[in-house]
Amino acid sequence: MATVTKLDSELGVLTDLVRSDIQARRLRPGDRYFTAEEAGRRFGVPRAVMNKAMRVLSDSEVLVRRQKAGTFIGPCAETVSASSKRTPLTKIFVLTTHSVAGTYVDADDMIEVFWREFPGASVEFIRLPSDSPVEYVRDLIDRAGANGESVGFLPISIPRKIYTLLAGSQLPVVVMGSLGIEVAASLSSVDGDYVAAGRMLVEYLIAQGRQRISVLMPEVWLQGDNLFFESIRQTMGEAGLPVTSLCVRSLPSDQSEFAENVRLLLQQEDRPTAIISRKGLMRRGKNASHDVWAPALIAEIASSVGLSVPDDLIVAYDLGRNLPEKPLPFPCTHRFESWSQTLEKVAQMLHEVASQGPGKSAKQVLLPVALYVPDAA
Fold first, then answer.
1. How far is residue 244 CA from its own chain's centroid?
2. How far apart are CA 162 and CA 330, in angstroms?
3. Which of 5, 219, 291, 302 lies at 20 to 30 Å from 186 by C-alpha?
4. Pairing mode, if any, of strands 332-335 and 314-322?
């Protein structure tokens, strides 16, 4: 059975997630809640771990567990009135630098969640042009002002200069991605805790006796990538490892070029004994049959040059989402929350910003992560 590390500290995270889930789905005292098995699947943890967290919540009457009847919302749960007033946004622009098919974004789920929070609003997905993205977004802002529309923006990991533009627009904005300090006081954001993810992966590899670590990063780094790598570098330094023990490569998204670069890296005389991949799923258009997981591709290349995984080379990665029911057989950091839970949180934050005004309620939410280690690793 695969395990999630640091159980005691994670019970607190799980209980907080359940409380947030109750609010996000606007459940009331007496409403039915998940069983421990169902909740474990939702939050990506084993049933036994989830059961302990639910027992804590039952002791504080956030949940009520009735033998043979099920689990219900308790009298001490903090709930949100289903009839609470919602600020109407007539249009929500989802901004990306890639087509939705080339990202982790599920457009149908996003539309469903935002319609619940903003009934009747249109949700428009926009792939920003590569030659003039700032001008394009500025035109969107100007047109919204000229038409008197009530619009909101949801940028997903886009260039920092567009965040600066949106921060000065005085329009409701919630960013799905990490922010630089220059706009953090003006914009709200939701993203994974990449600092914790980088630290967890390095600590695990060092505990396995690996001291030559290569980090494979994307060609273009965003703020989250910077945080992830800096955490890795700092953790290795704190462990007393020399600077030469860390190697970083910024690799292209093209699978064949990526594979060739990895092959050359593993054939070096001072090859790494562990690889951390910032890339997870490498997509190739709309045809999912062409997609490949970067850790699996790295392991395949290692085998082709005579290396055994994990004996000669440990391959680890940041999954960037919640753990699936059948995870890959490689160590990884993952989020507790599902995609739909994250969307619900983002929609509520956009509601708050639209209600209170931009800048007045700006906050950065870090989604907690955990380390998954397969039995064979």
1. 30
2. 36
3. 219
4. parallel
CA distances from 193 to 1, 56, 172, 225, 334 (A): 26, 25, 24, 11, 10
CA 200 to each of CA 7, 210, 316: distance values in angstroms, whole numbers, following the listed order: 14, 14, 11
Tell me: do 222 and 324 sit in the same domain.
yes
Residue 296 structure tokens: 């699996």
CA pair distance 68, 116, nearest whole angstrom: 32
Q: Considering the domain boundaries, does residue 337 fall inside one?
A: no
- Its domain, for residue 305, covers 194-330
Average pLDDT of 1-5?
38
- Whether residues 162 and 214 share a domain: the answer is no
The model's pTM is 0.77
So what's the pLDDT on residue 11? 75
pLDDT tier for residue 236 given thresholds of 50, 70 and 90: very high
Strands 151-155 and 91-96: parallel
Of 38, 73, 108, the last residue of a domain is 73
Structure tokens belonging to residue 210: 């690996």
